TrEMBL record:
<keyword id="KW-0520">NAD</keyword>
<feature type="binding site">
    <location>
        <position position="153"/>
    </location>
    <ligand>
        <name>(6S)-NADPHX</name>
    </ligand>
</feature>
<keyword id="KW-0479">Metal-binding</keyword>
<dbReference type="Pfam" id="PF03853">
    <property type="entry name" value="YjeF_N"/>
</dbReference>
<dbReference type="GO" id="GO:0110051">
    <property type="term" value="P:metabolite repair"/>
</dbReference>
<dbReference type="InterPro" id="IPR000631">
    <property type="entry name" value="CARKD"/>
</dbReference>
<dbReference type="Pfam" id="PF01256">
    <property type="entry name" value="Carb_kinase"/>
</dbReference>
<keyword id="KW-0456">Lyase</keyword>
<feature type="binding site">
    <location>
        <position position="384"/>
    </location>
    <ligand>
        <name>(6S)-NADPHX</name>
    </ligand>
</feature>
<keyword id="KW-0413">Isomerase</keyword>
<keyword id="KW-0630">Potassium</keyword>
<dbReference type="GO" id="GO:0052855">
    <property type="term" value="F:ADP-dependent NAD(P)H-hydrate dehydratase activity"/>
</dbReference>
<feature type="domain" description="YjeF C-terminal">
    <location>
        <begin position="219"/>
        <end position="509"/>
    </location>
</feature>
<feature type="binding site">
    <location>
        <begin position="124"/>
        <end position="130"/>
    </location>
    <ligand>
        <name>(6S)-NADPHX</name>
    </ligand>
</feature>
<feature type="binding site">
    <location>
        <begin position="58"/>
        <end position="62"/>
    </location>
    <ligand>
        <name>(6S)-NADPHX</name>
    </ligand>
</feature>
<comment type="similarity">
    <text>Belongs to the NnrD/CARKD family.</text>
</comment>
<dbReference type="InterPro" id="IPR017953">
    <property type="entry name" value="Carbohydrate_kinase_pred_CS"/>
</dbReference>
Amino acid sequence: MKTIVNSAQMKAVDDYTVEKVGIPAIVLMERAALSVIDEMKKHGVTKEKILAVCGIGNNGADGVAAARILYLQSYTVAILLVGDEDKASPLLKQQLLIARNLGISIYNNIAITEYTIIIDAIFGIGLSRNISGIYKEIIEEINAGSHTVYSVDIPSGLSADTAKPMDIAIKADYTITFGLNKIGLILYPGCEYAGNVIVEEIGFPEIAVNQVNSPYFSYDTNDLNKLPKRLNYSNKGTFGKVLVIAGSVNISGACYFSAKAAYRAGSGLVKVMTAEENRIIIQSQLPEALLYTYKSDNWDDCTEEQILKEIEWAKVIVIGPGIGMSNTSGRLLDLVLEHAKVPVILDADGINLLSEKVNSMHNDNSRIENIVSILPKQTILTPHLKELSVLLDMPLDTIINNLLGIADICTCKNDLITVLKDARTIVANKKERYINISGNNGMSTGGSGDVLTGIIAAFIAQGLEAKEAAKLGVYTHGLAGDKARELKGSYCLIASDIIDALAQVLNNND
Ligand SMILES: NC(=O)C1=CN([C@@H]2O[C@H](COP(=O)(O)OP(=O)(O)OC[C@H]3O[C@@H](n4cnc5c(N)ncnc54)[C@H](O)[C@@H]3O)[C@@H](O)[C@H]2O)[C@@H](O)CC1
Ligand SMILES: [K+]
């Protein structure tokens, strides 16, 4: 698990380290500068002309320190100071004094085209307003050039909080960021400005990180040890019963993908509840699945009784993929919402039907209060952003532009687990904001979301808590997508490839 922070949280870590722990800021800065140089050397920087472009805060001071260390190691290096030196931070003044004492060239104006490597140290996490004037000009000039750009801490101009450029930002080849990864380097579009991101440990103690208590984090492969354990003494009942209520007339793929993924991710038993028309397809494509089919046009008391039995049978229920917006689907959803006593994963048309239900509620409650009031505890909602915009009755742009704020709205003061599906999926619950970094653009393909519901369900069926299953499900789904891309490439990848690749992700953990 890797903690992620915004600028205020990072500043709090800095301040605690310096003021409470007593590690001098200049020591951290020296380590920061050394880590930038280490990274540059790893990429073969040797005889090139290097220019450190430095602003007037501590990010600029890091840049001057890096230039000085390079200079002392006989690299050809100069410093371009952008901004009013009289307003320089105390640490920058100190770094400039050292650099001048050593005779390093410090310019206020220079032709940057003479240099092949740029150390971008104009702004770090202290960026507080839109870029303009000379700063904008220099960033434009750097972006127009063909230099290799190493950004110090964060590409200058990029917001560490929103991942958006504050009007303009440096396009880096590498970003060496200190201590902890930043939201701005992970979410889109920031991650595309940052290039390769390297998180360097520069001596922030754990106690300083912990006191910030950031809700933001991502997983790495070490977190696969959270996967449910497979007991040796077991039978198919040990690994849980998944009920997949999915598909409708003419839509059979959704239940197939969800159910197959649930089996591949380790469930003991998977039952598909779908329209009678899908019977033969499911029986022939996925004979492992148990099946209950209903006649959409002949729904009687017996049907309802049987459906309630199936709801009771399940340890976890997926409802929504491909069920359509018919009255039958609406009745199915009502039965699940009313009677399920186990975690429910609500996806696709299940979410659209929920939106319709909420539209018909007229009271003084907020929209999210109404949504939560009709969902069983431990419901996992898995909307893509368009579904979410309908559910929350908010413009899509508002959602796209403020994903983390929307995650707060979805979860604040309630037990809902929301999986906001996007290029960087966010899994939000009351206390946590998991930001997923696995996966790739090849996964933007029909059926991919159905596969995700099956994986999450399988993890719950095998005993994981719903919120852990949601995070780990999203992470492993992305990892499987990455494995699938290695084999098929991002153009050719289809949902079944993700299911097939699950074996490579999960079985390493056997
Ligand atoms: N202990 C620490 O505090 C450490 C800080 N470090 C470095 O310090 C950086 C943060 O330093 P600072 O807090 O001084 O902030 P920055 O150096 O990021 O920038 C702050 C300066 O830029 C000005 N500014 C902000 N937005 C502007 C805009 N749009 N146009 C013009 N001027 C603008 C501010 O008024 C201030 O003078 C980190 O990103 C990191 O690189 C590292 O050396 C590690 C240790
Ligand atoms: K920078």
